[in-house]
Amino acid sequence: MSKNKLFQAEDKNMSKVCSVCGKGKLSGNLVSHSNRKTPKLYEANLQKVSVKNANGTVSKEYVCARCLKSGKVERA
Ligand SMILES: [Zn+2]
Q1: What is the pLDDT of residue 33?
Q2: Cα of 48 from ligand 1 centre, angstroms
Q3: Which residue among 1, 15, 43, 63 is least packed, with the fewest CB closer than 10 Å?
Q4: What is the pLDDT of residue 2?
Q5: Structural contact between residues 64 and 26, judged by C-beta atoms closer than 8 angstroms
Q6: Ligand 1 centre from 6 Cα, in Å?
Q7: How many CB atoms sit inside 10 A of residue 21's CB?
Q8: pTM of structure
Q9: Distance 30 CA to ligand 1 centre (A)
Q10: 38: CA distance to ligand 1 center in Å?
């Protein structure tokens, strides 16, 4: 979990980062049929969900679809 805190501290735009795994933007190219490449940023599939925290409180967090599906957060 310390890895996640590192991600959170470094990224200033918190709303574009998963609060569980720290997944954020991915870079790649759009490739046309003539093979010209255009830089493109892909954002994580983030959902704003109510999460039950370890101390029993409930908070709204941005969590990526993968973390939701794998049950890494308990939804409130
Ligand atoms: Zn995640």
Answers
A1: 98
A2: 12
A3: 1
A4: 47
A5: no
A6: 14
A7: 17
A8: 0.70
A9: 24
A10: 27
pLDDT at res. 4: 55
Q: How many angstroms does the Cα of residue 32 sit away from the middle of ligand 1?
A: 30
Between the CA of 45 and the centroid of ligand 1 the distance, in Å, is 9
Q: Which two tokens stand for residue 58?
A: 């409930």
Q: Are 30 and 40 within 8 A, CB to CB?
A: yes
DSSP 29-42: EEE-TT--EEEEEE
Given a contact cutoff of 8 angstroms between Cβ atoms, the answer to whether 63 and 47 are in contact is yes
Tens of pLDDT, residue by residue, the chain (76 residues): 445 555 554 555 567 999 999 999 999 999 999 999 999 999 999 999 999 998 989 999 999 999 999 999 999 8
Structural domains in the chain, sorted by start: 2-69 (2.30.170.40)
